[in-house]
Write a structure and sequence with these properties.
By secondary structure, this protein is α/β, with parallel strands linked by helices. It has twelve helices and 15 strands. The strands form three sheets. An eight-stranded mixed β-sheet has the order 1-9-8-5-4-2-3-14, sandwiched between helices. Helix 1 (19-29) runs antiparallel to helix 8, helix 2 (38-51) runs parallel beside helix 8 and helix 10 (310-319) crosses helix 12. The longest helix has 24 residues, at 381-404. It is globular. Bound molecules: pyridoxal-5'-phosphate.
Length: 405
């Protein structure tokens, strides 16, 4: 019998047509094996044309794009930056690269993303302290859109720039417009596990009125801050953050299949909802009205008193050679960020799980009760059946254990 195949959480998925190879070959044939060349500039143009962003700068990673957005805003030592707590650490790390101070903001149940009410409370607190933040970073976690209108309104009222971390949400739309195009800055990631990948890479989208100028400055920092002189002349500290022409070739090919990938990821999410939705205590990721989620990862939530625990699901899938993962552990619960403030409307915060360190904040609870289900776009019907079978068996098992008692 054929061995059961390993199922990934989300792995690179190149086009059937081989578009990516074609662009790479072009780069080889013309010897543009550098962080310079046609693929890079074309990739930037194709992304902005596809999603309707201002100016794009292709970079070596999504993390580099966040760093460049902060530098472009002028974030410096001692500045306050409001940042969604429920995210991957790459959203927050660049704040610390610039010696600024992240203040973490709790999520809301509607979108799992930054709570506009908690953001408003954070502004009130920090303005009173005469420490108005210099930027706000929101995330569209797992492709679910944050409440962009509400958050953008608050930022506009306080005249603070908004950065949209759309690393996980390329292809998601909010009221018919793509994420990454609403904030003053948007960032995308093409890391290996994202909905489309270049093997590793990212992009900064600048959507301000003076986007051209700002993008030019980012390009300068990202290419070692070289001055236009015959010799190597520097007046600022630079970075080696530019995307290579080979990598950009993969991206150009992948962009052609983005819609297909979104469709498949949404199919996977719907499959779980249809085939597991009747299990007592299981819930699925929110789908806020007026938004279209790319469903990068399908995420479930289990009720507090559900017989089956997130760890049971992850363990059972692992035993069957299937990869799943906990929900991101919020930044305010990470030891590395323990010195920083956290704004939540959840009332008195206390640790409710001493093993995971989860607290009773909204983000802490989403972390505590969530599981990222296998969401690989290469999965077949059989794979999905196998996964749902494994999970249903857990409920059957626990219900027979209960009836034996
Ligand atoms: C992946 C990711 C990033 C970082 O992107 P890289 O390209 O891996 O540097 C940033 N934020 C979020 C939310 C991510 O998921």
């Amino acid at each position: 019998m054929k061995e059961k195949e390993h199922i990934y959480l989300s792995s690179p998925h190149m086009s059937d047509e081989g578009y990516e190879k074609k662009y790479i070959e072009e780069a080889f044939d013309t010897n543009w094996i550098a962080p310079l060349g046609k693929n890079v500039t074309q990739f930037e143009e194709e992304v902005t044309a596809k999603i309707g962003a201002g100016k794009a700068v292709a970079l070596s990673a999504g993390t580099a794009a966040i760093h460049m957005a902060l530098k472009s805003i002028g974030i410096t030592q001692g500045d306050v930056v409001f940042c969604q707590s429920l995210t991957f650490s790459a959203t927050a790390n660049p704040i610390v690269y610039e010696k600024a101070e992240p203040v973490f903001i709790d999520s809301e149940c509607d979108t799992w993303n930054m709570s506009p009410e908690a953001l408003e409370a954070a502004f009130e607190k920090y303005v009173k302290m005469d420490r108005k933040p210099k930027a706000v970073i929101i995330v569209h976690l797992y492709g679910i859109c944050a409440k962009i209108d509400e958050i953008a309104e608050i930022c506009a009222r306080y005249q603070v720039p908004l950065i949209e971390d759309a690393a996980e949400s390329l292809g998601s739309t909010y009221k018919g417009r793509y994420t990454g195009t609403f904030g003053d800055y948007g960032i995308i990631s093409f890391n290996g596990n994202k909905i489309i990948t270049t093997s590793g890479g990212g992009m900064l989208l600048v959507n301000t009125e003076d986007a051209e100028e700002r993008a030019k400055k980012v390009l300068y920092w990202a290419t070692q801050a070289r001055e236009p002189a015959p010799w190597y002349q520097h007046t600022e500290i630079g970075y080696n953050y530019r995307m290579s022409n080979i990598v950009a070739g993969i991206g150009r090919g992948q962009l052609k299949v983005l819609d297909e990938r979104v469709e498949k990821k949404r199919y996977i999410q719907e499959y779980y909802q249809t085939h597991l939705g009747d299990l007592p205590g299981i819930h699925f990721m929110p789908a806020p009205q007026g938004t279209h989620c790319n469903c990068w990862l399908s995420v479930i939530q289990l009720d507090e008193d559900c017989r089956v625990k997130p760890m049971d699901i992850m363990k059972a899938l692992e035993d069957d050679d299937v990869e799943s993962r906990p929900v991101w552990k919020p930044m305010h619960l990470q030891p590395v960020f323990s010195d920083f403030d956290f704004i939540s409307l959840a009332g008195d915060l206390c640790i409710v799980d001493h093993e995971t360190g989860a607290d009773n904040s909204i983000s802490g609870q989403i972390f505590e009760h969530g599981v990222c289900m296998p969401s690989d776009s290469k999965m077949t019907e059989e794979d999905l059946q196998r996964i749902c079978g494994t999970i249903r068996a857990l409920w059957e098992q626990t219900s027979s254990e209960n009836s034996e008692r």
